[in-house]
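Supplementary Text 2. Reproducibility record for the structural model of the 519-residue chain.

All settings were left at their defaults, and a single model was retained for analysis rather than an ensemble. We include the record here because the model underlies the residue-level annotations in Supplementary Table 4.
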Amino acid sequence: MNLVFFYSKNETGEALKKIIGEELEDVNSRDIEIEKTDYLQINIYDQNSTCKLIINSPEAIVNTQKEKMSKILKLNNIPFSYENIDKANRIYEIVVCDFNIISIKAKNTSKTKKNVEFIREGNNPKIAEMARKTLYILGLDIGKVYIILNARRQYKVTSVDPSPILRQKELNAVKAYIKKIYNIDDYVQKREVKIGADPEFLLINSKNQKIVAASNFFPREGVVGCDNIRMPNRQQRPIAEIRPKPSFSPLELTHNIKEALIAANKLAPHKNIKWLAGSQPANEYSTGGHIHFSNTELNFKLLRALDNYLGIIGFLLENPVPAAKRRKKYGFIGDVRKKEHGGFEYRTLGSWLISPQITLAILCLAKIVASKYPYLSMNYFCSIEAQKAFYNGEQERLKIYFKYLWNDIKNTDIYFLYCEHLQIIPEMIEKNTNWDEKIDIRKAWSISIKKTVKTSKSNLNINRAKGNTSANRQITRISQISINSRNSNSQTTRRRNIPRRVNNTLPVRINPSGRITRH
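Retained model, structure tokens:
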């Protein structure tokens, strides 16, 4: 991978230029000026690659100016302060390189305590995460973040140095990072990304439009369950979510999602309760379309590709009004959570369960972006104007980027595998069509609705222990039927099987009625 690396022309910048020149073959540099400061532009060439990645871009460096930085951080709910750091109770200097916290230097202003000490990330994970988010949202890859603990016991960012003077240990970490990015082509070619999801939806009384708690029908755990959010002053949990089996194939994952929705419908098959998805289908509660990735390593380059090529494009499909409401609390730029299994969950998108066509298109796009992110290097979110448009639901301002983002997607070497299923995305965007958050998603997924129930408080106040046991039994039975049917040799069940991995023939198709069939 060809790299361009910007660093101030200080002693660390000169040291990095020398070290990189000794470690890699084809390296040169030139002096440039960024905001009246002398910088080194270090160019690292790779004869085997036609792509280029930038480390600490000039635009990101400009974002560290205090006036601009304060606005960007405020937009992303990261506390910022102009306070004099000398008056702080404690001052932290955190050196960040990508997702790695290289060092945390803590300074006490109290004379009764040790003046300076280096602490581990685990000793104060809050400031480590704040520093990591700050660096990422400014567009930087390497830098030092200054955070204070003020008299009110509040942590606040005060400044960011995009070219700090580094100790030898920190210098070695930066060198290792640059070499890793340089060899990123080999890394992504040897791994196939696995994807999963836990998209959310709401249950709404179709007569009075009030939310019906998902916990009245679904258990906490399992293929169908409830999110952890509770209703105010109640034990009930309003948001439902499905947890389909992950797959290497977005087509198979879509099939698994439908199976999970069918399982959910057996627990709550009521005609007078609508199932709604989207960004914020009800005023009180938002729903997310969380996508899980594994068998790949989370880094800033991958997350920025997801934000731009999946986040922006997904945003252009959403209804902009509820999307803006949702992002006051959820779905921030770079909203990601590491998982126990070693992968991570991308949480920026609204719930794309609206229809099987939209679901499959989003999952195919996610597969491409996560698999080919080194070749998807645009970062429009380095601009505060783009960030504002995203949070305010201003689709027209971001729509101008779509053709460039989509052109990069089409130029990937796996686009042809999914092009048929992706076509709905440019069609909707070109026609200024947004997804409809008021339609019962079961109709779009061709899931039959059999019964009607009175949704009075007494009828919905189901015994949780009994209901959860019954729900788990039904889900277990459905899962067993699914497993048995896939092991069957009958012609009917063979038609429902989907290969574990996608090959050059696309065996699965979603027709206009919403049914998934194999060809």
